Amino acid sequence: MDLCDEATSARRAATSEIAAAKTLDELEAARVKYLGRKGLLTLLLRNLGKVGPEERKEAGRLLNEVKQEILSLVAGREDSLKQAAYSSSLASESLDVTLPGRRGAIGRVHPTLAVMDELVDIFVGMGFTPVEGPEIETEYNNFDALNFPAGHPSRDEHDSFYVGEGYVLRTHTSPAQIRVMQAQQPPVRVVVPGRCHRRDTPDASHVVSFHQIEGLFVDYDVSMADLKGTLAAFAREFFGPETRVRFRPHYFPFTEPSAELDISCLVCGGKGCRVCKNSGWLEVLGCGMVHPNVFDHVGYDRASLTGFAFGMGVDRVAMLRYGINDMRLLYDNDLRFLDQF
Ligand code: 2NL
Fold this sequence. Notes:
The protein is built from 11 helices and 9 strands.
């Protein structure tokens, strides 16, 4: 075969191999096969020196033409392979900028504190001022000023958290009201929401850190009738206008007389059911007329002043409000539970 035939056949073979290359690597292999240092066309060009002048002229022209053609086919194929790769990356990495953005997870008010806010609002509506106090209290404010006798069982280390000599994690929010009375003269009309701590073994109705809201009203003519009217109005506003109330005699060291307030059962309306243990009533709070010994401790005149006070377990009330049967669920911090409220 003469050089011209070989050039023509190389042109045909190269053309179809370049067109068939599916990747840049395959294309490069084809280029080397024809145009590399030991490539077919390179060898043919080298053979030009071995042929006669007639054939050399003709074959030289043809070989160079084929060489240029292969170069331009390779360049063209490289362009289209790159273009195809770019198009397919555009398709697979496409970004729809019209999609709505992803919202970050936003926190929310815990059910206990949502109830706390509601309770505070109701008493603010009746003229009470919200006040807060420290969770670490003096033993004096937490117990002595509230007429707890020296040997009272709740003062025991087994029932309260003592944090150094004379200090305790408050077991109720009453000591904040002691601070208010020490700091200002009557009339006093405050509500105190806050966290309290008792050394209880957790169960369905007890957690170690719980929440209370207490109220205190002291003036020159506050009566038990004021207490009953205020708390009955509160119960109807918070639990609904159909709610009936009853005051049951009770004992607290810091009030005399003392009572517990029950409301007609929210579930059965008073007929008796599982939730009210067939009694028809639910216990909601403790209350009473401020004990004169408490007035002595804060320097108020026991002869001319009277006052009423009450205290409510907010966790308990939140359980009633939302139909929760185990207090510990509120503080397990399981979002599958908390997201329901
Ligand atoms: C309950 C009972 C009560 C009070 C809290 C109080 C505060 C002062 C003086 C007198 Cl400074 N009393 N607070 C009174 C009666 C009951 O709480 O069972 N709470 C969950």
